[in-house]
Amino acid sequence: MRISAKTDYAVRAMTQLAAMSDEAPVTAEQLATAQDIPVKFLLGILNELKRAHLLRSQRGAEGGYQLRRPAAEISLADVIRAIDGPLANVHDISLETLAYPGPAESLREVWMAVRGSLRSVLETVSIEDLAAGKLPRHVRTLAEKYQADVRQLKH
Question: Which CATH number does the domain 5-85+124-154 belong to among 1.10.3210.10, 1.10.599.10, 1.10.10.10, 1.20.120.1810?
C-alpha cells in the first residue's frame, strides 16, 4: 500500500478538525496553516471528504468545515477509501474472483492477508484516537515491533 500525499493530508486535516472541534466550523485556511498543507490542494481534499459524507461545510462569515460524525466513528480506513479507494487493490478485481495458475495459486491468499492486515490497523484506529494520541494497543505493539526490526537491521 502506498500512502499518497493527498491521503496523508486528508488524515491530518481530519485529525486537526477533531482536535479543534468545539462546535464551531473550522476554515480551510485554519486547517492548512495548522497542518502546513497548501490551501488550494486542501480545498480539493475537503470537497472529496464532503462528498464521502465524512465532513459537512457551512458557508458564510462563520462558515467552515466540521466532522459529519463523531471522530470516534470515523476510521482511518474511511478517510483513505474516500480519497484513494480500496485499501489494497489487485488489478481492480475482487479477491474472491482472482485466480492464479500453477505455483502462483497461493498468491491470492497472500493478497487477502495483506488486505486483512491493513484492515486490522486502519479500521480500528479512529480520528479521535489520533487526535488524542491514544492508539489501540495492538497498533502500538506493531509500531514498536517495526521500530525494533529497523534498529536490528541497522546493526
Answer: 1.10.10.10
